[in-house]
């Protein structure tokens, strides 16, 4: 069976991805050599539907909204599991976690469940050059420490060199010292290597698009962005888009009565951040101070806007290279993010 070339094929791709926003590239200008459409898959980490295209009046996401405006927009899509690795393996294989037998980060489905084909593998086996940039599969054992290479990719995946600093002391606090904080607006010129992972991923993806413009083969390019996953490490200028006085609190802050302890996530990864530790919040149900709640939400929204600019750069490059009309664009998040006031 050849790679999908028709409208039905485009819809199939979007449905398999359970995508948030899916853009269907025009089919009027196909690849001149193979008559097959390229595919650009954009995967975002922990993005809830806090976007203008979903009616959010506060969040500024003009580039994603523009993509959605001429796309098939899913209003009733769900993550198979609200954990990165199981969700990604699920939509990249088109199988439920009950089939992949991955519910956490601790196994490789090809070994423990079955030698399932992935979406990029399918394209690769049908004549496409398949490329991975950033966080596509979850790193670690869940992708065999190789991002499922060589099965899914034509050559080794790219990871930005600056991602190793994501959880280190790069956040300058009010005391002037560097901390490993949850809230981390930065001056990009001051951080290690003078850049951030998502900026590097965009630059690499654009370089690959430039190379593929003259390729005789169609391409499948997956670009995985880190933000708005914690820590909220983003260029500080985006914080100005969201004055604290405009930030509302979560409408449902309280732990439900009778909630079984097993159903509650104490967010230990957040509690380990230095700025959160300084709050001395009791475990597991201690409420976050109201002023810090607003700052969390502010930084999440700022991270979304920063992400949006990277998506805009990528899509502009696709257009500038005259590849937009021969490329299917799919945009999805692996799952959302819970911004309740308790941790």
How is this structure best summarized?
This protein has 343 residues and is of the alpha/beta class. 29% of the residues lie in helices and 13% in strands.
Structure description:
This protein has 343 residues and is α/β, with parallel strands linked by helices. It has one domain: Alkaline Phosphatase, subunit A. It has ten helices and ten strands. It has helices at residues 7-17, 62-69, 84-93, 97-100, 109-112, 119-124, 197-212, 268-271, 274-277, 290-320, and strands spanning 21-23, 38-44, 71-73, 129-134, 171-172, 178-179, 183-186, 219-225, 232-235, 327-333. It has a six-stranded mixed sheet, sandwiched between helices. Strands 5-6 form a two-stranded antiparallel sheet. Strands 7-9 form a two-stranded parallel sheet. Helix 7 (197-212) packs parallel to helix 10 (290-320). The longest helix has 31 residues, at 290-320.
In the residues, how many domains can be counted?
A: 1
For the terminal residues, how far apart are their CA atoms? 49 Å
CATH class: Alpha Beta
Beta strand count: 10
Q: What kind of sheet is the major sheet?
A: 6 strands, mixed
Assigned CATH superfamily: Alkaline Phosphatase, subunit A
């Amino acid at each position: 069976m050849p790679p999908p070339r028709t409208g039905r094929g485009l819809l199939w791709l979007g449905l398999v991805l359970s995508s948030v926003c899916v853009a269907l590239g025009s089919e009027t200008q196909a690849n001149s050599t193979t008559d097959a459409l390229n595919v650009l898959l954009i995967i975002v980490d922990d993005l809830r539907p806090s976007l203008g295209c979903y009616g959010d009046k506060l969040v500024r996401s003009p580039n994603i909204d523009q993509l959605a405006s001429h796309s098939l927009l899913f209003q009733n899509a769900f993550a198979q599991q609200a954990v990165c690795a199981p969700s990604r393996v699920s939509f990249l294989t088109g199988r439920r976690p009950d089939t992949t037998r991955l519910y956490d980060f601790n196994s490789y489905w090809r070994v423990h469940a079955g030698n399932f084909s992935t979406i990029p593998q399918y394209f690769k086996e049908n004549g496409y050059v398949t490329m991975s940039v950033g966080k596509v599969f979850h790193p670690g054992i869940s992708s065999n420490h190789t991002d499922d290479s060589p099965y899914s990719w034509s050559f080794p995946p790219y990871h930005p060199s600056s991602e190793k600093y994501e959880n280190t002391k790069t956040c300058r606090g009010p005391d002037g010292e560097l901390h490993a904080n949850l809230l981390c607006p930065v001056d990009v010129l001051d951080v290690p290597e003078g850049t951030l992972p998502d900026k590097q991923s965009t630059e690499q993806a654009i370089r690959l698009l430039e190379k593929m413009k003259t390729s005789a083969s169609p391409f499948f390019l997956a670009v995985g962005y880190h933000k708005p996953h914690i820590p909220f490490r983003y260029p500080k200028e985006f914080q100005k888009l969201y004055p604290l006085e405009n930030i509302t609190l979560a409408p449902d802050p309280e732990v439900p009565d009778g909630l079984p302890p097993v159903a509650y996530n104490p967010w230990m990864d957040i509690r380990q951040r230095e700025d959160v530790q300084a709050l001395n919040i009791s475990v597991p149900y201690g409420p976050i101070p109201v002023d810090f709640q607003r700052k969390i939400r502010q930084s999440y929204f700022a991270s979304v806007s920063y992400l949006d600019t990277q998506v805009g750069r990528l899509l502009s490059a696709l257009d500038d290279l005259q590849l937009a009309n021969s490329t299917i664009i799919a945009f999805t998040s692996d799952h959302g993010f819970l911004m309740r006031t308790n941790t």
